[in-house]
Design a protein that fits this description.
Blueprint (H helix, E strand, L loop, with lengths): L7 H7 L3 H11 L7 E10 L3 E10 L13 H7 L5 H11 L7 E5 L3 E4 L2 E10 L1
Antiparallel strand pairs: 1-2, 2-5, 3-5, 4-5
C-alpha cells in the first residue's frame, strides 16, 4: 500500500481545520489565542503500519517556537476535542483494517522548522 490510500480530502474530513479553533477555545477561552493551525497529513503507509502526523503550522503574527509544543503529544492523546482515538479508528477503517486490532501512539514533537512542528501518529495492526 502507499500513501495514495489516504488522500488529503479524507484526512481533512476526519480532522477538519476548524478543530484547532475548537481546541484553543476550550484550552484558552478563545480561538484567537492559538499560535498554530493543526492539520493531519499522511507520511507513509505499509501493509501493517501507517505513519501520519499532526502538523502544527504557525499562525500569522504568532510564535510557534515560543509555545510549549513539546508537551503536546500527551495533551493531544487525551483531549476530547482532538479525539485522536477517533481519528485512528477512522484511518484504520479507511485502510480496511479492523479497528479493534489496531494500536496507535503519538510520537515526540518534531521541529521541522521554526514555523512548522509535527506530532507523529503511528498506527500498527495488532
Amino acid at each position: 500500500m502507499t500513501s495514495q490510500n489516504l488522500n488529503q480530502t479524507f484526512l481533512d474530513e476526519i480532522f477538519p481545520a476548524s478543530r484547532a479553533d475548537d481546541f484553543f477555545d476550550a484550552l484558552f477561552g478563545g480561538a484567537e489565542e492559538g499560535a498554530y493551525d493543526i492539520g493531519l497529513v499522511c507520511r507513509e503507509i505499509s501493509p501493517d503500519k501507517a505513519h501520519l502526523a499532526f502538523e502544527l503550522r504557525q499562525r500569522p503574527g504568532k510564535c510557534l517556537v515560543c509555545n510549549l509544543t513539546y508537551g503536546l503529544p500527551q495533551v493531544f492523546q487525551r483531549h476530547p476535542i482532538l479525539n485522536v482515538a477517533g481519528v485512528a479508528r477512522a484511518v484504520a477503517q479507511e485502510l480496511g483494517w479492523p479497528a479493534e486490532n489496531v494500536n496507535w501512539k503519538l510520537g515526540h514533537t518534531e521541529e521541522v522548522s521554526r514555523e512548522l512542528h509535527a506530532i507523529p501518529l503511528i498506527l500498527e495492526k495488532a
